[in-house]
Amino acid sequence: MNCQEHHITELFKQYVGLQQTLLIRPDTAQQHAVNCCFKRLLDRFHRETDVSILLQALPDPYFPLGMLEQTIFADVVGMRFFINKKRYDLEPILGQELVEWAGAFLRIRQDIQTLFDPNTVTCIPVDGTRHHLPSGQWCGLCGVCCQIGGVPPDPPANVVYPDHWLGFLAGETLENQQLCPFLFQYFGEPLYFCAIHNIKPLSCLVFDQKDCRRRLEDRGLHGS
Ligand code: SF4
What we know:
mainly alpha, binds iron/sulfur cluster, two-stranded antiparallel sheet, about 40% helix
């Protein structure tokens, strides 16, 4: 690629900023800027199937743009190492991870519609309407507890997950999973919720306020 062009990480972050603002405050005057930015990002993908997946997934009001910005597209800072996500040699991998992520999101979104009741599977009906999220609970919906590589995919009693969810939950399907693919975002806000909250795996069900505090003290390796 031409090194004078914007890096895919920059293009993705620009799109995230504009799209989240648009979702929070719908404004037709801003739609054009978002579309232009989205097109610049999509131009980096050359397979029609990839473009089609991204076109469907990224504008979805539940797609976790903010979380992908904080994980896949965030630098990694360790004690003795640093991974700069604006390295040009990482562009193909980042692009592929974005497509895989978007594909998993669409599949889960579809499963929720067809295999479960989208009105009750999670804390709000996932019907594209701004239903009020639950409030007055200890969980602040920051989503940090779901920045994980996988969980044991054991469902609660009387629930059967489709086979392909087992790999999504266990972190065995998506390459380099850093975030649970069942985590959805609420209309561009920094608010995240489990798409299968009412049928989530047993290990997620037992996660409590003490675990939450511990998790926030140890937030991992991602930088900006
Ligand atoms: S299944 Fe739900 S609660 Fe469990 S890690 Fe995934 S998003 Fe979080």
